[in-house]
Amino acid sequence: MVHNRLTHSLEVASVGRSIACRTVQKLLVKHTELKDRQSDIETIVSTVCLAHDLGNPPFGHSGEDTISSFFKDGKGQELQRAMLPEQWSDLTSFEGNANAFHLLTCQFNGRRPGGLSLTAATLGSLIKYPYPSYDKGNRKKYNVFYSDLEVFEETMRECGIPKIDNEHCVYARHPLSYMMEASDDICYLILDMEDAQKRGIISTEAAEQAFLSFFDPKKDANFFKHKDEVYREVSDVNERMAFLRATLINKLVNLASDIFVAHYEEIMEGTFKDSLIAYLPEHEENALKQCRKQSVKDIYRHPSVVKIELTGFNVIGTLLEEFVSAVLEPEKAYNKKLLSLMPEQFTPLHEGMYYKIQSVIDFISNMTDLYAVQLYKDLRGID
Q1: Do 144 and 152 touch, CB atoms closer than 8 A?
Q2: Residue 170: beta bridge partners?
Q3: Which one, of 249, 126, 117, lies nearest residue 188 by Cα?
Q4: What is the phi-psi region of residue 115: left when phi exceeds 0, alpha when psi lies from -120 to 50, beta otherwise?
Q5: Does residue 1 have a pLDDT over 70?
Q6: Contact 82, 33 (CB under 8 A)
Q7: DSSP per residue over 338-375, as a string?
Q8: Considering the entire predicted model, what is its pTM?
């Protein structure tokens, strides 16, 4: 079985809980005050790992690009003059991370205030990029839409996270967000490689070599001995790959927790830079870099992947065009019928073009790939 968004999130949550557990156990040597908080920390990390991709639209990162392109250089660009620069920035650089925070905290029509009413610690740990889109500077990603600035600042204050740039509303990161980020970094690359092998995009030998490259023949001699024993007993290719994947994830979990402990003071003070994975030992760092290069070259640019992305551009682009037009001119007969397809919860609670368009994006970003494709077919009369 290849992974989908749900199984990926479950894997990330499992890895996140493991990183949290091992990190606290190592920290207890010097920080005994954490003893009564271990369960809370594990729960928070696994929760945000489950939610980390919640804001991704259909077709994942390709869907993000499609939404951005629609407003930046597509039919939606004519709407710029009716919005604040901060609002326009959200649309032309749509970000799934910010959308996850939005979906979890926004009061949708007919729903209670506070969204899912998660704790401040959970919401703070979800935020990898603690600043809004308009003030992100040269950074590619961000975590806060203009509409969610107030709840973002309230969350960070509740968590006691220091503000490091008042002018641009930039905060330090919540310490637990590093564990969530590391869990996702570990899982997506390794699981994508395993899935590509199962689908025949890359050879079994290539995937196997990529996984084995993380192990040093000198430092990890016991692993290679154990691997030979397993291979003598197990001949099934997928079972062998599962063994390598699980062993590699376990290795990286231990390294990530070691890195967190080594940089604990910096992380708690809000001065730690980059991700935990960026501090891997040289051998594992080189293996990771090579694995990423191979993924870009052989997996993410594979024709089967590109075709799906092109489908996403057409599907999401069409849905945006149809529903944005409808929400801005709801009095037209066709648009009335179209808007009847939107669940009541996505009715805008605020006036203004930005909020109306955001309600459409909320609707579309909540779709599965299959639902988006089916709705596209229905609107185009394709059987």
Answers
A1: yes
A2: 165
A3: 249
A4: left
A5: no
A6: no
A7: HHTTS-GGGS-SS-SHHHHHHHHHHHHHTS-HHHHHHH
A8: 0.92
Q: How long is the chain? A: 383
- Residue 187, phi-psi category: left (phi > 0), alpha (psi -120 to 50), beta (remainder): alpha
Which tokens is 137 given? 């500077």
Distance of CA 285 to the CA centre of its chain: 22
Which has the closest alpha carbon to 66: 368, 311, 363, 317? 317
Residue 214: strand, helix, or coil: coil
Residue 287: partners with Cβ closer than 8 Å, 6 or more residues away: 210, 213, 214
* DSSP character at residue 171: E
Question: pLDDT tens digits, residue range 164-223?
Answer: 999 889 999 999 999 999 999 999 889 888 989 988 999 999 999 999 999 999 999 999
Q: How far apart are CA 192 and CA 2, in angstroms?
A: 9
Please report, for residues 76, 301, 324, 349, the alpha-carbon distance to residue 353 in angstroms, rounded to integers and kept in the order given: 12, 37, 10, 12
